[in-house]
Design goal:
With 341 residues, the chain is an alpha/beta fold. The chain has 14 helices and 11 strands.
Length: 341
Amino acid sequence: MTDTQDHTLDDWRARALEFEAEICKAVIGQEAAVRLLTVAVFARGHVLLEGDVGVGKTTLLRALARVLGGDFERIEGTVDLMPNDLVYHTYINEDGRPAVDPGPLLKFGDSLATFFFNEVNRARPQVHSLLLRVMAERSVTAFNREYRFPHLQVFADRNRVEKEETFELPAAARDRFLMELTISMPRSRDLQRDLMFDPRFYDVDALIGGLRAGVVPYAALNAVSAAVQAHVHTSPTVENYALDLCAATRAPADFGIEIAGVDVTRLVLSGVSPRGMGMLMRAAKTCAWLQGRDSLVPEDLHAVFQPTIAHRIFLQPVYELRRSELIGQLVGQIIDRVTAP
């Protein structure tokens, strides 16, 4: 790259770090999650958050939307939500006649930057199908024309407590998320004390409203992301290591991986796909850039491996019911057992 391009990426890295710092003013104790969300923003990938009720998933995504800038829309997942509710809504106007207005996807047209789907697992499979197209193609067809959203990122959350009137996301939709992140309560007692006793955390609207808006010019992010991917280079040694990590998700026994009480040769139904491999590399390169480097190292792969890969590993039915227990062990074993350069 030229000196001018390098300087531009240095400036963008400074903005990315400002982006992180601003979000952390409203969401405390979630620095690791904020860093991964920053990676996703600059890698141009969608993100699914999960966690217990009340741990700050919605607050985190609202803070991100404000600091990112651009137009923001939000929809609540409900059991009676239908695909058309994302595209348009009908009503009786003041003249007593039927009228149609654009729904949350179409309201802002191609300036829509952030689409937040709250409690996505409450929506029906028909809605998930439409969401899949929006995530995959950043477009939707309505009123006999195609609408495109070149700057759109989808952020969704789901709570893992309630199971009634919920619908599991299909594998194809989950695979379109660059990352799945688990948000937990901060472990620090001091941070818990702040959340419990500091009045500024009682009013979320005021908390979010106090953040600086538009720290990152959203319309330039696609070009910046492409420049980052071209800027960070990989050595043949690291490339082979990344290929081995992905191969271990498909055939863990070949890499000496062992899990107590599990027949590892029969554990995995399907490992990471070529799409997932590409997303892992996009995230890892972005992570390297945020660290101020122009070359990929194994630690960059480790930093993003679990959130980008775990939801792309599908277990045999006999083990799927133990997924929450086994998938973390499997991913940890892959990082521990596959020989790093």
